[in-house]
Design goal:
Helix content is 19%, strand content 28%. A seven-stranded mixed sheet has the order 3-2-1-4-5-7-6. It is an alpha/beta fold. It has one domain: Rossmann fold (3-Layer(aba) Sandwich), CATH 3.40.50.150. It has five helices and seven strands, in the order ααβαβαββαβββ. It binds S-adenosylmethionine (SAM). S-adenosylmethionine binds next to helix 1.
């Protein structure tokens, strides 16, 4: 059976991935105090590089060494970590900013929440399940959010912005959801 690492290594060898930072990162990163950032499943580092250029020290984690090899920058402010997110420990209270784009591992939700320092910000965006089951669907349902799910996934955080809408990524599901939320400074 092909592992997730093998699957993603092959994709990074064969396909082109976007190099500009996600819209949500560009639009909302400034809500976070400049400091330590964590980019979960960072891929080619498009978001990590954007943040490093704006003064963040970034831990960028991905299972695929091919993705990490294709990083879109070489910044000394980025700590590239090749690891399965299932084994990566998110240290409590460590980050001013956590970014999760186009990736879903529900088990991480409580650790993401705890990983934010007070005043720290979460930028989360990924795909939603299609309303109808389509034949030939490439994405398993466990990789896709249900409608409304993301809005309630981080109960200790205060929402700054939330939305569900069309996705324009090639070869990807047609809808996505995003959440921008902050860990309150006083509990
Ligand atoms: C669609 S790409 C998104 C990459 C990046 N977040 C972005 O928005 O450009 C999904 C990423 O998740 C990574 N990935 C998949 N399973 C993983 C796991 N278990 N642990 C860490 N990374 C994983 C893949 O290697 C791939 O880089």
């Amino acid at each position: 059976m092909t592992s997730d690492r093998d699957k993603w290594n092959r994709k990074y060898r064969e396909a082109q991935f976007p190099t500009a930072a996600s819209g949500i990162v560009q639009a909302f990163y400034h809500h976070a105090p400049v400091g330590r950032a964590l980019d979960l499943a960072c891929g080619n580092g498009r978001n990590a590089c954007f943040l490093a250029a704006r003064g963040f020290e970034v831990d960028a984690v991905d299972i695929s060494e091919e993705g990490l090899r294709r990083f879109v920058c070489r910044s000394p402010a980025i700590n590239r970590i090749c690891q399965d997110m299932d084994a990566f420990r998110i240290h409590p209270l460590r980050y001013q900013l956590i970014v999760n784009t186009r990736f879903l591992m529900r088990r991480l939700f409580p650790f993401i929440q705890e990983g934010l320092a007070p005043g720290g910000v979460l930028l989360f965006e990924t795909y939603l399940q299609d309303k109808e089951d389509r034949p030939g669907r490439k994405f398993g349902r466990h990789h896709l959010l249900k409608d409304g799910e993301l809005r309630h996934a981080f109960p200790a955080l205060q929402t700054i912005a939330y939305g569900e809408g069309a996705s324009r990524h090639k070869d990807a599901p047609t809808r996505k959801a995003f959440l921008v939320a902050v860990r309150p400074s006083t509990p």
